[in-house]
Design a protein that fits this description.
Number of helices: 10
Strand order of the largest sheet: 1-3-2-4-5
Order of helices and strands: EHHHEEHHHHHHEEH
Strand content: 5-15%
Distance between the termini: 67 Å
Radius of gyration: 31 Å
Mean pLDDT: 83
Structural class: alpha+beta
Number of domains: 2
Number of strands: 5
Amino acid sequence: MANPGYGKRSAPDELRRTGHDFAHLPDREAHIAGFIDRLPDGSDISVKLLSTCLPYGQAAMRTALNNLQRAGHLRRGREHVHGSGSARWVTRTWFSRTARGDTWWTAYAMGDVPEATPDEPEPTQRPTRTRALLLLAALGRTAPALALSAAECARLAPETERWFARGATEDDLLRALTAGLPVPVHSPAALLHRRLVDKLPPPAPVATRPILRLIECGKCGAPGHPEALPDGFCDLCRGVRPTYRAPAPLTPESVRSHAAEVRRAMSYGREGTRV
């Protein structure tokens, strides 16, 4: 195992393990990927240690891990430690049994992929009464004139769920549904439907997500945004030359014009005039 807080990190939302997860890889890479896949999170998967556990030298292991990175199973980088009270970043190595493309890894680095537990068993029994149904069923206790039948609660539940999806609380809903009721209430279900639709709050503003992770080049270790590191490698390590164009040289007329502007400014300064 690596030091606490380091080592292997499994990517979320992986497919369930099968006997052909790495069949698309060469034999060496498939062997190494299968070994890493079965290690628990926090295991030391450095080149040096893996070479002592598997029949491959460090150079071959380094090449194989780079190939796994190109295939979308591996990324190296840094991650901000939440709740630490400081801006501390730690080194991470993320492994995904399911091959991922650059778009997925970019979304994961920006925190746009939910952190779900892989291979989580399905619940044997789902709850039949949702938060919206419970509120609607109990509404008659707060306002007896708004008592609803089971069928009416089921019809109004989707509109009620929209309030919760926009950040409303039970108290917000109760105030909106029970304030200023007419006397008498002829049709509680129709009145509630109208209020649920007309008083629906606007969507909450989307907050800018902070960068949670930085991907590092698998060869030279240079950090960068994921979109700048296709397959986890920087342009230099992929042999891509930078498209830099030198600025065009100044013409003699431009040089004379700039020099005249400088002399004019210097003369103003000597005369005490504010430039």
